[in-house]
Amino acid sequence: MSMSPFTALNQLNDYLSKVIIGQEHLLERLLIALLADGHLLVEGAPGLAKTKAIKDLARGLEAEFQRIQFTPDLLPADITGTEIYRPEDGSFRFQQGPVFNNLVLADEINRAPAKVQSALLEAMAEQQVSVGGTTHKLPSLFMVMATQNPIEQEGTYPLPEAQLDRFLMHVRISYPSMASEKAILQLARGEALHHDIQPPAHIAQETIFAARRAVLELHMDPAVEDYIVQLIDATRRPGAYREELGNWLDYGASPRGTIALDRCARAHAWLNGKDFVSPDNVQAIAHDVLRHRIIPSYEAEAEGVTTDHIIDQLLARVAVS
Predict the structure, then answer these.
(1) 3-state class (DSSP) for residue 154
(2) How many domains does the chain have?
(3) Tag placement on the chain: N or C end, fewer CB within 10 Å?
(4) Which domain does 87 fall in, by range?
(5) pTM, whole model, 2 decimals?
């Protein structure tokens, strides 16, 4: 008898918690992105298990994983694939690029030029690739986790704000605690001795699709919908909520932000075993959903006001119905 999607995802979460230590926030966001059918932008220093997290996620699923290291000399065809000439019959055959996998890690996405970034972001948005006048569909289960290194910014190509909006969430991660670091040390020693922790089962893609349907069908009261819409409106008309906020924000979130808040709040509630979405779920994911969708003013930057602080102020001032 096959297990329910909720049981399967909880087993996957338990497995990931054992192999990725001290990054609970990242693991939860990975699962939320998987359930909400979106893509993740993760920012953190090197060595914080970003690559390991998505690799181990792929191990727990019936899914193909591919890592792409972004570099300044990368070409769009290196990601999407290209037409290969076949001399035996004088024809061209499309050779798929690494983007044709279920889970794709775009490592240090800001190291590659704009054309390469656009090729990946187009694939993310359209779930297809067009080469030589032919459109090639990407897999039904398709998720990109892109990473950015907050240090060594010299020679990088920052993602434009309009392209950042394509990501469901922008997650920032930091160093683990001392207790977690000790556990990491013991885990790494065990893995070196080939004492790997194996996933309990490989979750079928159909189970993920069933979980996504359950997330979309989760009950959300109209008052919570109104709260989501008001939060987005507050990013566009911040002066109406607090005069200082009006000076801090140049641009607010697009309708993609509204949809992302809804889907991520639903996934957060579902993962936590709830059968309805509450304002608490919206507040729990608000920073990761809105962080890359609002543009602070020059005045805010001069005063050292961060996007996270602005979101804190918005959450404090938008009333729950």
Answers:
(1) coil
(2) 2
(3) N
(4) 5-174+183-190
(5) 0.94
